[in-house]
Amino acid sequence: xxxxxxxxxxxxxxxxxxxxxxxxxxxxxxxxxxxxxxxxxxxxxxxxxxxxxxxxxxxxxxxxxxxxxxxxxxxxxxxxxxxxxxxxxxxxxxxxxxxxxxxxxxxxxxxxxxxxxxxxxxxxxxxxxxxxxxx
Length: 135
Description:
Blueprint: H1 16-36, H2 41-55, H3 62-73, H4 75-96, H5 101-126, E1 128-129, E2 132-133
Helix pairs in contact: 1-5, 2-5
């Protein structure tokens, strides 16, 4: 089966909730970068490429689809618990491993740029946001 860029997106329109989450999360990242004052463009690129790959081509593989199905199957409480557990582990690692703040902030900035571009491409592809259609 030949995969296309259209296969990277779900078979539904993006929701206002998804858009809101990405946009509000992006504000925190942007403010952190301005406070930081220094950006590592190498880490921005790494975050962008890894996130873009995970959201796009890697998500269409058998493993990616299986992971996505498992994540949906565990329900809202399970997803929230998994995300919180991941955040706690990452936050705890910060205190045990000397991680350069510039690298982490830059990597996260690259992730959010990829997510925003993915979301914009998703909206352009569907020409709809949760029931709101363009002309």
